[in-house]
Amino acid sequence: MSQSQGSLYVIATPIGNLADFSLRAIETLKDVDIICAEDTRHARTLLQHYRITTHCIALHQHNEEHAAAGLIEKIKTGTSIAIISDAGTPLISDPGMPLVALAHSEGIQVSPIPGACALIAALSTSGLPVSHFTFLGFLPRTSSARQSLFKEQLNTPHTWVFYESCHRIAACIEDLSSVLPANHEISIAREITKLHETIIKTSIEKMLLLVNEDSNMRRGEFVVMVSPKPIEKKPESLNEHQLMTLTLLLSECSIKTAVSLAVKITGVRKKLLYQTALQLAAQNQS
Q1: Of these four, 109, 140, 161, 237, which has the most CB atoms within 10 Å of its CB?
Q2: Residue 210: CB partners within 8 Å, gap ≥ 6?
Q3: How many Cβ atoms are within 10 Å of 97's Cβ, its own excluded?
């Protein structure tokens, strides 16, 4: 790099299929001076596959707070650094936040090299509403803590999504079933882009049976997505002023004429006014 100050790159890596890696990501990893990897042993497979020989060091949850300051100093002197996680987009439930946050505070350029992300890949194929969603990351390890978290999400008006391990997926769905109705829809994406990729959308009740009966559904890495609580639509009705207008018109005109005039006066839908007019007429006859 010819810059007087280096740059920091946040680079998404494949979440399974090694072919899911952009040319820009490969070129950048070859061009930077240092690669910070969540696990250097895991990263070696990817780097060797693409003949990337850049020096690689470990940056994980146990050392990132301590290492961040030193890495920032290197960038200030012209060293360019890339962050990668074991799979997917760094910082999304993965290490890297201390370094990125410190880079911003020091005025250092942080550039994303986009690519695979289990969260987005799963949502895009879930069949659930995804215009708005809440990401909960990895769930607590205990059943009581998971249930408490699920209860907090009960009235969330959009899809919520989280990561879960193979060791707790059955218990997790069991906890969901204790909080939500049996027919509530969820979607599970398992082993995305890998040989045994599985994406299923069904009710909690059926998903629980599937996970308990099929041992394959207790293997791999999971993204669990929960549909939002159905919005209860209140019956449409006239407000006090609109109802008074219609009532007065009915006292002087036929239903057809009263409804026609009420549409022009109030702007309310003709169907609602007509239904209300029939109800008022029936009440007056009884």
Answers
A1: 161
A2: 200, 202, 217
A3: 14
Using alpha carbons, select from 227, 208, 95 the residue that is nearest to residue 158. Answer: 227
Compute the distance between CA of residue 126 and CA of residue 197 in angstroms, rounded to an integer.
13
Residue 283 has pLDDT above 90, yes or no: no
Question: How far is the C-alpha of 103 from the C-alpha of 147, rounded, in Å?
Answer: 37
Chain position carrying tokens 């899911």: 20
Contacts 24+ apart (CB under 8 A), 99-104: 99/8, 99/36, 99/59, 99/64, 99/67, 99/68, 99/71, 99/72, 100/8, 100/10, 102/68, 102/69, 102/72, 103/8, 103/72, 103/75
Degrees, nearest 5: CA angle 222-228-233: 165
pLDDT tens by residue, 105-137: 999 999 999 999 999 999 999 999 999 999 999
CA dist., res. 109 & res. 75, Å (int): 10
Sign of the CA dihedral with 170 first, then 175, 181, and 184 last: negative
What single-letter amino acid sits at 92?
Answer: I
Type of residue numbered 55: H
Provide the percentage of residues in the chain whose pLDDT is more than 70: 97
Token code pair at residue 27: 């070129």
- CA–CA distance, 45 with 16 (Å, rounded to integer): 12
DSSP 8-state class, residue 218: G
pLDDT tens digits along 23-41: 999 999 999 999 999 999 9
What are the two backbone dihedrals, phi and then psi, of residue 164, each rounded to the nearest 5 degrees?
A: -145, 150
Calculated CA dihedral for residues 137, 138, 144, 147, nearest 10 degrees? 40
